[in-house]
Design goal:
mainly beta; 110 residues; 7 strands; seven-stranded antiparallel beta sheet; 58% strand; globular
């Protein structure tokens, strides 16, 4: 009986579409900001965050005094005491441009 149940479950799972976890990127979550201004036009949606900004994407956490999140291009520009933590790696800088698609941070300043 157990073998039949396992076989039925395996057959049912094989009917589901395969998912590529590496192709799925979670959106950047806004965990905190004192002020959020949203603008939307033909070029897309932009969120301007100021004051105690805290963001997260998967296991990456980002902190800054302010940020501009261009959701169309999936880029976040963080300024003012920026800190990016991913796993055991920590990046601090005056400004960071975070590409949420590739999960790459480019830092400038100290």
């Amino acid at each position: 009986f157990r073998w039949i149940l396992v076989s039925l479950l395996a057959a049912a799972c094989s009917l589901l579409p395969a998912s590529d976890a590496s192709a799925q990127t979670r959106r950047v979550e806004i965990l905190n900001a004192d002020l959020v201004e949203v603008t939307s036009d033909a070029s897309g949606l932009v969120r301007r965050l100021t004051g105690a900004v805290r963001l997260r994407q998967d296991t990456t956490s980002l902190w800054a005094a302010s940020a501009v999140y261009d959701e169309t291009r999936n880029l976040v520009t963080l300024t003012g005491g920026v800190r990016v933590v991913s796993g055991r790696d920590t990046l601090t800088a005056a400004e960071v441009v975070y590409d949420a698609t590739t999960k790459v941070s480019v830092a400038t300043g100290q």
